[in-house]
Each structure stands twice: as C-alpha cells, then as structure tokens.
Design brief:
The complex is a heterodimer of chains A (217) and B (314). In chain A, 39% of the residues lie in helices and 16% in strands. By secondary structure, chain A is an alpha/beta fold. Chain A is globular. In chain A, helix 1 crosses helix 2 and helix 1 packs across helix 5. The termini of chain A are far apart. The longest helix of chain A has 23 residues. Chain B has 314 residues and is an all-alpha fold. Chain B has three domains: 63 residues; 101 residues, no CATH class; 135 residues, no CATH class. Helices cover 75% and strands 0% of the residues of chain B. The longest helix of chain B has 29 residues. The chains are: A alpha/beta (217), B mainly alpha (314). At the A-B interface, loops of A face helix 3 and helix 4 of B.
C-alpha cells in the first residue's frame, strides 16, 4: 500500500476507535492538578484493561494527542498484523519488550529516545494489567529511571476509573458505562530521592485521583 | 408529520430561547464579563444546551417517526449508561448488562416501531424482568443478588421502558387527530420542561417551605405550586392544538407537571444515596441525560395511558 494511503487509513482507524470508546464510556477528563496545555509530559496511569491508553488518548485535546505516544508491550502488539497496524501506525506506540532475556533494546532507553524526539508518553508503571482486588500492583522501576534520565519532564498521574467494569478481563463484549480520568498534579524526582521512596510517592499521587478517596462507590 | 401547530410550538420554544439568551447575555455582561460568576456561567451553559436540545428535537420531529424513535432510543442508551454506572453489580452480571444495552433496548424500540402494543407494553416488566435474573444466576454469584437484579430492573424500567413511552404517543389513534400525534410529544415535553423551569423561577422568588430537605434543597412547595399552575395555565391556553377540551387540558397539565416534579424528587433521592450531584456530564450546565429527562420520564407513561384510555380507539 502506498504510504499516504496507509497514513490515511491509520487516521481513520484512530478516529473510529476513539468514537467507539466515547460511545461505550462517555469518558470524562477531570483536570484536577494540571491543565491540558502543550507541555512535554509522561502520563502514568493504572492499568486494568487494554482500553486504558485508548481512553487516555481519546480525552486529550487533538493537538496534544498527535504528540502523545503510548508505551506498550511488544509481545502483545506484534502478535497479529491487525494489532501491529493499530499499535504501530494508529497509535504510534513505543513498543517495548517485557522479556529481559529476549530483548535487544533497553525499554528505558527507548522511552528516553521518544522523549528526546519531543513526544509525550503514556505509561503503565504496574507493567501488566491488574485484575487483583488491590487498587494497584507494585510499580516497576521504569518510571524512576525515566524520572532520573529526564528530571525536567512532568510526570502526571492519571487515575482511570470504571474501565475494568466496562470490560472485565476475559469478557468479549464491553458494557457501556461512564468512565472518569482524573489528572493529578505532576511530580518530579527530587534531589537525592531514592528509588523506593520515589515509587511510593508516585503510587500515592496516582491513588489520590481515585474517586473512592472522595467517598464515592 | 409537520403541521402548523408543531411549527408554532417549535417557534414558541425558539422565541423563549431567544429571550433567555438575551437576558443571559445582559446578565453576563453586567455580572460576569470574564466568566468569574459561576451561577451566571452555569446559566449560560444551560441556555446553550437548551438550544442544542430544542434543535435536536425539532429536527427529529421534522424527520418523522423514524427520527423521533431514533432520538429517544439514543436518549435511552445514554440514560441507561448513566444509571448502570451508579448501580451495584459484579462480574456475574456482565451478560445481563450486555443484554440490557444490546438486546432489550433495541427490541423495545423495534416493537414500538412496528406498533406492537401488546409486546412493548409488557416486554420490560414481564420478559426482561424474568429472564435477566436467570442470566445473572447462571454465573453463580449470590452476593447482593437481590440488590443487583432489582437495581438493573429499575434502570431498565426508568431508562428504557418509561422513556420509550414518549415516542409511543405517535401510535395512538385519536379520531379527528390523525397525522398530528407528534403534537402530543411536543406538548408533553414543552409543558413538563416549562414547569421545571418555572418551578425553579418560583422557587427562587418565593420558595420557603422545602418539600424534602434531605433530598433536594431547591425543591419547595411554593415552587411546585407556582410552577405547576403557571405551566398548566400555558398548557390550557394551548388546548386548541391538542385533542383535549380546555378543562381536560388543564387537568392533564396538572397531572404531568405534578408527576414531573415528583419524578425529579425520586431521582434526587437516588443521586443522594449514591453520593453524586449529577447523573452525568454530557449536557453542559444540566448534568446528564437523566438530570434533564427525569420529569418527562415520570410523566410520559401515565400521560400515554390516560390519553389512550380516554381518547384513543386502539
């Protein structure tokens, strides 16, 4: 296929996925700690469903959306040619290999390269989908290494509420329910902060956006 | 389906909105030129949303039966999405929830579109009522079972069954009123929503005695009586476009405005219990679809059946 046509198909597919996500979840962005302005950011969110980054991408203003790339698992997104099209062409994902023994590139280096090219990122620091009863799984260290490599970039916590009820793991057809995405105040690595302390602070910042914390549900 | 009466109603609603927009614009210039007064900002958001709603409704009316049915099917969908977001359910209910949206809702409106009264008037309270709990039971989770199935049924009754009785008015056969049924819908919505607005105005001006202080601080007896009476006066003056005599038009209006008021009260009780202020966020200034439709939802089925009983030949 010629490249212009390919790019057009990717744009149309992106719009279609976005419209479908809106139809299913009427997503509502609550900009609690920051405003949706064009600044380089790393959005880090809780991960309960494959639709998480689609929803986050959908609620961003179109101008921010174009320069925001999700960080996703290579083993999942290259499994079929359709997934590869959606992952690579539609969302321009930074595909990282979660298997240390198999990978040729370091995930943190890949993310830093994307930041240096001017992109914002969407990452899920839990590293895998959370289907447990706890609110969050322990964070992987990627977020810390990213904060250390590019300390000036805003790390923005985004709590995605309700999407796990729209599409519980193992179900095929989603149920339309309203989802909210709460954007908290950005955090940065402070001088001399060690890894565990930073990750604990990031976890706390993310949990602060949870609607349950406001006495709901 | 267009008739001069319908155009009069749409033009009337348009004139009220032009007037409201002018007042809103003046208030904004005086009190909130830089958007600093939240009450004024909410008021102008509300007026803008009213424009969108009136235009959507007007277009649906002009598009005929299909347009009206489609519009209300979409309203049902959005309302159900808001309602089920706040109800209790767990993973075992997944299939019954999927069925609510993608089976029961479309079927209810399909039965309506084929004018199958015997089916659409019992489909949700009989078939859905009995079959949905089976889908939940088969998955084996018993925790909060009765709460879960009751809340799902309530959501369906409110958002699908009751809401579908607005377009059902198209299928009544009233001698001498053929081809003008869409007026009944426009009349119902106009009077009930006018009553909502006037209740708000009367409540702000002379409201003292709260109807249910725990549920809603803004609903007062003065607001109810003033709003219902003044909206009914307008409805009575418009009797000539309905199948009703002036006296019966007044009685019908008092019935639907009172039902509308208490519909709002019941839906407030649910919101209070769930700890939310609004059902949703899609209608700027108003909240969700249910926030705007609650009074119409409560008035529609009884308006439909009373009209059917006394005036329709089917």
């Amino acid at each position: 296929m010629n490249p212009a046509l390919h790019a057009f198909a990717a744009r149309v597919a992106g719009q279609a996925i976005s419209v479908f996500a809106r139809f299913m979840t009427a997503p509502r962005a609550i900009w609690q700690g920051i405003e949706p302005v064009p600044r380089q950011r790393v959005y880090f969110a809780n991960h309960t469903s494959n639709g998480d980054f689609v929803l986050l991408w959908t609620v961003l203003p179109a101008s921010l959306r174009r320069q925001t790339r999700p960080v996703a698992a290579l083993d999942y997104w290259l499994k079929s040619s359709l997934r590869a099209f959606i992952g690579r062409e539609v969302f321009n994902a930074v595909l990282i290999d979660r298997r240390p023994e198999a990978r040729t590139e370091d995930p943190v280096t890949q993310m830093v390269t994307a930041l240096d090219q001017g992109s914002s990122l969407i990452i899920f620091p839990e590293g895998q989908r959370n289907s447990s009863d706890t609110a969050l799984l322990p964070f992987k260290s990627g977020l810390y290494h990213l904060a250390k490599a590019r300390p000036e970039v805003d790390l923005v916590p985004v709590w995605i509420a309700n999407l796990n009820r729209v599409m519980p793991k193992g179900e095929v057809i989603p149920v339309p329910l309203i989802c909210t995405l709460t954007f908290g105040a950005p955090i940065h690595l402070s001088g001399g902060e060690v890894k565990d302390a930073f990750l604990a602070r990031a976890t706390k910042a993310l949990l602060a956006g949870r609607p349950d914390a406001e006495g709901r549900e | 389906m267009t008739s001069p009466d319908l155009l009069w109603l749409i033009a009337g609603a348009g004139a009220i909105l032009v007037f409201a927009s002018l007042i809103g614009g003046i208030l904004r210039q005086k009190l909130s030129p830089n958007g600093e007064n939240p009450v004024i900002e909410n008021l102008s958001a509300r007026i803008t949303s009213w424009w969108v709603m009136v235009i959507m409704l007007g277009l649906a009316f002009l598009a005929g039966r299909t347009g009206v049915i489609l519009l209300f099917a979409l309203c049902s969908f959005a309302a159900l999405r808001e309602f089920l977001t706040l109800t209790t359910h767990d993973r075992a209910d997944h299939w019954s929830l999927v069925a609510c949206f993608f089976l029961i809702l479309p079927l209810q409106y399909a039965f309506l579109a084929t004018d199958w009264y015997g089916m659409y008037s019992i489909f949700v309270p009989v078939y859905a009522f009995l079959l949905l709990p089976i889908a939940s039971a088969l998955r084996g989770s018993t925790k909060d079972f009765l709460i879960r199935v009751s809340q799902t049924q309530w959501a369906l009754m409110i958002c699908v069954y009751c809401t579908s009785h607005v377009p059902a008015l198209l299928y009544l056969q009233i001698p001498g009123f053929e081809g003008r049924n869409v007026i009944l819908i426009a009349y119902l919505i106009f009077i009930v929503q006018l009553s909502d607005v006037l209740q708000y105005v009367w409540g702000k001006l002379v409201g003292r005695t709260k109807v249910a202080p725990n549920l809603s601080p803004s609903k007062t007896w003065e607001g109810l009586i003033g709003g219902a009476l003044s909206a009914s006066a307008v409805g009575t003056a418009l009797f000539w476009m309905t199948p009703f005599s002036p006296l019966l038009a007044a009685a019908m209006c008092l019935m639907i405005t009172t039902l509308g008021f208490f519909g709002g009260l019941v839906m407030s009780a649910i919101k209070r219990d769930r700890g939310v202020k609004d059902w949703g966020h899609l209608i700027a200034g108003h909240g969700g679809f249910i926030d705007r439709l609650d009074s119409v939802i409560f008035a529609a089925p009884i308006f439909f059946h009373v009209t059917r009983f006394f005036w329709s030949t089917t």
